[in-house]
Amino acid sequence: MTDQSPTRGRGVQSVEVSVNLLTALARHPGPMALSQLAAEVGMAPAKVHRYLASFVETGMVQHRRSGSYDLGPRAAEIGTAAIARIDPVNRAADALPELVEATGFTALLAVWGNLGPTIVRWEKAAVPLVTMLGLGSVLPVTRSATGHAFMAHMPDRLLTDVVAAEAPERTLEDFGDLRMSVREAGLAMADQDFIPGLFALAAPILDLQSRPAAVVTLISTTRDLLDEEHPARMRLVAFAAS
């Protein structure tokens, strides 16, 4: 009798191949050429191309003008949703509207993704704030409050290459004082360092190993947010601790 188990057959094999291709794209720091991707997964370029054509049609992959391939908006949507279901992140996301209501500032929640700090939740305040940032945006480690909050608590081995890519003229050791000050204060700040006209305060949500499960950040168009006596500072620290 023929085995009709759903765990066997070409259908499941195709899924496994699809996952391998998408994983290779996700783990690569940037777009990949067809030949490069084929070599990475050990498949013939013609076969990889057929899969990629379907991925492009569904939005899982985007075909760039250069001819290379990269993850598409559908992949970002699925990845963001999966990350958001991690319990500490989910709890923080659920409570984010209360933080915005209490402080009056727009807030974002970020986790550490394949390319660095990635926004998984965006909660707008009543005061308008115009920015190109949104769900799925990757923030710089070296120039954003969110990135500094991650940098202060992440192990060096996960930061060295990211810092080198963002700031080739600097090393991770150059950020030693910054990392220590963020750990001591429990907060990181950006005084228009990343986006002109925007000020930010960020606090890490630490797990039992004192590693950042996520970072929550308040954003303002006025520098008042960075004042040491601003009540939003204590609310943000308390939010992250809770």
UniProtKB/TrEMBL annotation:
What organism is the protein native to?
Pontivivens ytuae
Which SUPFAM superfamilies does the UniProt record give?
GAF domain-like, Winged helix' DNA-binding domain
Q: Which GO terms describe its molecular function?
A: DNA binding; DNA-binding transcription factor activity
**Keywords assigned:** DNA-binding, Transcription, Transcription regulation
One Pfam match: IclR_C
- What InterPro entries does its record include? GAF-like_dom_sf, HTH_MetabolicPath_Reg, Tscrpt_reg_IclR_C, Tscrpt_reg_IclR_N, WH-like_DNA-bd_sf, WH_DNA-bd_sf
Which parts of the sequence belong to the IclR-ED domain? 74-242
Q: Which PROSITE patterns match?
A: HTH_ICLR, ICLR_ED
Q: Which domain of life is it from?
A: Bacteria
Biological processes annotated in GO: negative regulation of DNA-templated transcription
Q: Which residues form the HTH iclR-type domain?
A: 12-73
Q: What is this protein called?
A: IclR family transcriptional regulator
